[in-house]
Amino acid sequence: MGVHRFIGTSARDAMRQVRESLGDEALILSNRQVEGGVEIVAMLDADQESLTGQPAEPAPPEPVAPTPDPMPASSSAAVTAPQETQAFSARLMDEFAAMRDLLDARLSTPTAPEEKATPATRLRQRMIGVGFSQTLVRELIALLPAEFADTADEDIDEALNGWISRQLAARLETLETDSDLLAEGGVMALIGPTGVGKTTTTAKLASRYVMAHGNRDAALITTDSYRIGAQEQLRIYARLLGVEVHALEGDGDLGALLARLMTPRRALLQMQRATPKRTILIDTLGMSQRDPRLATEVARLGEAGVPIATLLVLDAASHGDTLEQVVAAYQQAADRAGTPIRGCIITKLDESARPATVLDILARHRLQVLFVANGQRVPEDLAAVDVAALVHEALSVDSASPFGYDAATLAEMAGQTRQSKAHALSRDVVSHGRALHAMFDTLARRAPGTPLLEQLWAHGLSNAPGESFAAHMAARSPLTVAPNEEHALWWSKEKGSRQQDWSMPLVSLDDHGLPLPQTWLRHRLPTSEAERMRWARETHQSAWHLMAALPQIDEMHRLAADRQLWMSAATASRRVRYQGERQRLADLAGLAAEINQRQCRWRARPVNMVLSCLPALYETRGSGDPVEVLVWFARLHDVDDNRVLAQRYWLSNAVTGRDVASRLARAVALEGLEGLTRQAMRRLEESGVARSDRETRLQLASGLAALATRLELCSEDWAMDVRAQLFNLSGGTRRRTGTVLLEALMQAFTARDALMDAREARS
User: Fold this and answer.
1) Helix, strand, or coil here: 240?
2) In a 10 Å sphere around its CB, with 0-12 CB exposed, 13-18 middle and 19+ buried, how is residue 87 labelled?
3) Where is this region: Disordered (predicted)?
4) Last residue of a domain, one of 355, 384, 413
5) Per-residue pLDDT tens digits for 628-640
6) Would 306 be classed as within a structural domain?
7) Distance (Å, rounded) from C-alpha 154 to C-alpha 269?
8) Could you give the number of structural domains in the chain?
9) How far apart are CA 577 and CA 571, in angstroms?
C-alpha cells in the first residue's frame, strides 16, 4: 500500500514534497502541525481501492515499544520500519474511515449558503442569474481553468467575469469586420415566427442598402398575404426609399418573379433603361414554429430556382424555450428546403429583460449574428454586431428575478447531484463539439501554424501512399505575423539523441520566443550553414536565432552586419578571451555582473533565473578577426527553498534594442522540446498516424510538441482557457506540463475526428 508521510518546515514545503514524490494526483489523507513543521499523510489516488476493499484478516502484531511521534523533521520519505508501519497503518485506517464518513455526509448534504463559494458555484450563480441556460453553464463549468482555485477572494469575481466574457465571445460568430452582407448582393429572405419584426427589419435592411448603394438595383418582395396591412406597410417603406415592391399571393410563383427581376428582357432594358436587380429582400409569411405548414412555406424558397440566403429573425424578448423551438424548427425546415440558414438578426433587444437568453441560443447553435435591432425607427435602430457590448449587456442585468434562482438554491442544486467524470464527459457530446470548435478557432488565431498542423494530421490519418506530404509542405510560404512583430528560429543540435535516427526539425518562434506549430525538416534545407542562414533570412524572414550550437565565425560577422540577434548555448568548458586571456566560462561566472532576475519554467516546474553578463571576444584557430560577444550566465533556483538547481551558459552578439533576457528565459524552457517530440513520434507510431509517411510523422510530432510547449509556457488568458478545455476533454490530470498537454492535444484531434465522422454518418 503506497502510504507516505511527509514533513516540511511549512505547509507549502510539505505540499512541494508531495507533488515531487506523488504528483498532482495525490490523495491527501491528513495534515497536522507537528514539532518541527507540518506533517502531511498522502497516497496515490489509484491506491485508495486497497484501503476500501476487503483485505484478509491480518495476523496480530507483535508488541512493540512506543515509537516517538511525531517523526523527526529530517524524514520526508515513506515509513519503512516494520513496527512503525503496523502502528501507522492502524492509525491511518482509522483516519481514512473517518474521512470517508465525512465525505459521504458532505455528498448527501446540500452545500450550506454560508460556506465559501467555489469558482464553479460563483460561475453558476452569475450566469443562471442573468438568464443563461443550465446546458451552457454546465459546459463552461467543465472548462473552468484550475488557476481560479488559487485566485484571491477579492479578485475572483473580476477574473471570472473576464473569463466568461471571453468564452461567450469565442462562441458568438459574426460577420468579418470588412464584410458587408448587403453589398454581396443576391436574394435574401427573412424568415421567423409572427411578430418578431420581419417587415420592419426588411425595411431597415433596404434603407441601409439604399443609403450605401442607391436604389436602382434593389427590390422588395412580400409573401405575407395573411396579415392585414402587411403588404401595405412594406409598400409605404418602398415608396419612401424609391425601390420596387412586389406582393406575391400564397399560390404565386416566386421563381418566375425572381427570374424576371434578376434578368429582365433586353428590349425592356433598352426602352426603360432598367437594370437587373442586384439585391432583393423577401419579407416572408410569419409562421409559428409549431405550424405544420412551416415546412411547405420555407420550401417555396428552395423551389424558386435561384440561390436564396435565409436570414432567421429572433425576438430577444422571447423565452429561452420558445427560442430553442424556433431555431430547431426553422433550421430543420431550411435544411430540408436546401436553403440552410445564412445567419440571424436579433430584434427587440431594447425590450429584452434577459439578453443572455438569445446569446445562449446563438452560442450553442453556432448561428452567425448579422445585425442587432433595438427599436422601431427605420433605419436608425439597426446596427452591426458589437460582441463585447452584447456580452457586457447580458452580464450587466439585475439578477434578481421571481422566475430565477437565488444563490442558496443554486448552491443546493449544485450539492445534491454529483456525477462521475466519465458520465459528465459522455453526457453531452454536442457541447464538447462546440468547445472543440471554439478551441481550434482560438489556436488558429493565437498559434499561427495550427491550420498547417491540422492538414498534417488529416493527411497522416489517411496514410495515403505516394510522395511525402511533408515534402509538399516544404515549399510553403513563411508565417504571417502581426504588424511590428518578428519571428525567429530555434536551431536544435544537428544530430540529436543517440536513441533516434532523425534530426530535430527547426521550430519557428514568435517575437516573445514562444514556439509555434510550424516546423521545418532539417534534411529538406540546404546543406551548408551559410545557405541555411540565407534561407532563414529570405524565406523564413527570421529576425533572430536561438541555437544549440555556435554558428561559424563568418556567419557571426554576417549576422552582426545584418543586425540580427543570435543566442547560442555553450558548455562550461567553452573558452573566450577576457581581459587578454583565454578563460573557461565556468571560471568567469563569478566575475559577471547580475543584470536580471525573473521566473521561468524549466523541466515542467517554475524556477527563478538569476542572469548575469560580461563582454568578451570569441575566436577559433585560423578564423581571422575575433568576434565581440556577450557571455550570459544563468543560475536556476528552486522557488521554494532557493537552492541552485542548474547552471546555464550562452553566447550572443551585442545587438541594441533586443531583449535578450526574456528570450533566454524561453531558451531554458525549450530544452525539453526535442524530448517531447520523441514522445509525440512514439505516440503517433502507436496510433498508426502517418504510418506510411515518416517525414509527415516527424513534422507532425514536432508541431504538436511545439504547440504543447507554447501552451505550457504562455501565461496569457487565451492559453489558460485552452488548457482548461484540453484538461476537461482528457479527463485526466491537470498538471501544466508539456507531456500532459501533448497527450491532451492528440486526444483533442482524435475527438474532433470522431465528432466529424459521427456528424457525417448522421447526415
Assistant:
1) helix
2) middle
3) 51-79
4) 384
5) 999 999 999 999 8
6) yes
7) 71
8) 2
9) 15
